[in-house]
Amino acid sequence: MLQECQPADIAEFLVDLEPEEIATVLNLLDGDMAAEVLNQLDPDLANQVLKIIGAEKTSEILDEMYSDDVADLLGELTDQEKDQILNLMEKEDAVEVRELLEYKEDTAGGIMTTEYVAILQDITAARAIEVLRETAPDAETVYYVYVINAKNQLAGVISLRELIVASPDTVIEEIMHRKVKSVNVHMDQEEVAAMVSKYNFLAIPVVDDNNCLLGIVTVDDVIDVIHEEATEDIFRLAGTAEIDLEDTLGSRIINSLRTRLPWLLVTLAGGLLAGRIIRGLEAELQAVVALAYFIPLLTGMGGNVGTQSSTLTVRGLATGQIDAKELFLTVGRESLVGSAVGLICGLIVTFVAFFWQKSLLLGLVVGGALLGNMITAATMGTLVPLVFKRMGIDPAVASAPFISTSIDITGLLIYTGLASFFMSQLV
């Protein structure tokens, strides 16, 4: 019954079982299916299962897995544990996996696979198809056939369809596409994902500094990268980081404290500074108590606008919709948006304050402070991520706690300044 199921469906219900029970299920499957199921599991859980199922079955499963998947599986293990598993693999496959493990996890080399189809540029289409028959069964994808020269340098690419319909006697270099999009083996995985997404590739070749073909990154790995990077950015925007649910309770608490506390301390310091600013408004508040009524409104609205602007900017930078080089244009555009929403909200608050407290000047002070605060919030929420990007810092670290706290302070400074200036008319 399991053999008729999709590997992802099998993995979905296996995660609710104990590692010993998962091992029992995998032993019922043939090596190919077991490899696909294992690849769907969390790497930590998969490694626990491999230790249980025994050397013979482990060897059978690993021989059916692609080298990049095995490298991902071994990435978090100690050197001794890696050696134990690699010794169960065929020598040639183990060498490929060891080479992949040398690259950083978040680079093109760390996510590429070495199972691809490549042909020499000086052979005929008929000979190329023969090569394809020999190598394709072990390749992760055959939709693109990469063309190399005698030095293993990437020279071109040809689609499987173009190869099949070509005349048998045609030389490959006459029909191949010479302008090939490729990525360097040390390129960050986020940039690789952006290229694959931009050009709608099913795979993209990976080359070294001498343009020698080392492997390919397939679209399934790119999807994983996009999911991983998006999750990371979302957590950073919240001023925290992802916690591994497989960790012990103690480790999760410690990790949560380490990732959340610094941003909360920033917020705490900002709150104390904001309190000091309000204290400077003490005389005005005693004379006109109604000034205190609008403080939560000012800080809340400014924080919301700032968070919205920073979220849109960080996401735009990640997807390439916003260019960090267009700093003034982007900031100017978002400032205009802040001015528009600030003007509308400011007018509403002005009328509310006037009818509530019967003081037009108080309404103008509150409305003007809200307008200034929202313009500042929109500007800061856009400017900070852009500046971070220009400096080579991940813009996602310009998180909501940092920006919202900064905006609270600037908003209160604007409100305090206006209230103090018009104090004699307000009393």
What is the architecture of the largest domain at the second tier of CATH? Answer: Orthogonal Bundle
From the N-terminal CA to the C-terminal CA, the straight-line distance is 83 Å
Main β-sheet, spatial strand arrangement: 1-2-3
For the biggest sheet, the summary is: 3 strands, mixed
Verbal overview:
- Acts as a magnesium transporter.
- This protein has 427 residues and is mostly helical.
- The protein folds into three domains: 2-102, Alpha Horseshoe (MgtE N-terminal fold), CATH 1.25.60.10; 118-218, CBS-domain, CATH 3.10.580.10; 249-426, SLC41 divalent cation transporters, integral membrane domain (Tetracycline Repressor, domain 2).
- Helices cover 67% and strands 6% of the residues.
- It has 22 helices and six strands.
- The chain has helices at residues 7-14, 19-28, 31-40, 43-53, 55-64, 67-74, 79-86, 91-101, 108-111, 125-135, 160-165, 172-175, 189-199, 219-237, 249-279, 282-287, 290-293, 295-319, 327-357, 360-390, 400-421, 423-426; strands at residues 118-120, 144-148, 154-159, 183-184, 203-207, 213-218.
- The strands form two sheets. The chain has a three-stranded mixed beta sheet. The chain has a three-stranded mixed beta sheet with strand order 4-5-6.
- Helix 3 crosses helix 5 and helix 6 crosses helix 8.
- It starts with 6 loop residues before the first helix and ends with a helix.
- The mean pLDDT is 83.
Provide a brief overview of the structure.
This is Magnesium transporter MgtE. By secondary structure, this protein is mostly helical.
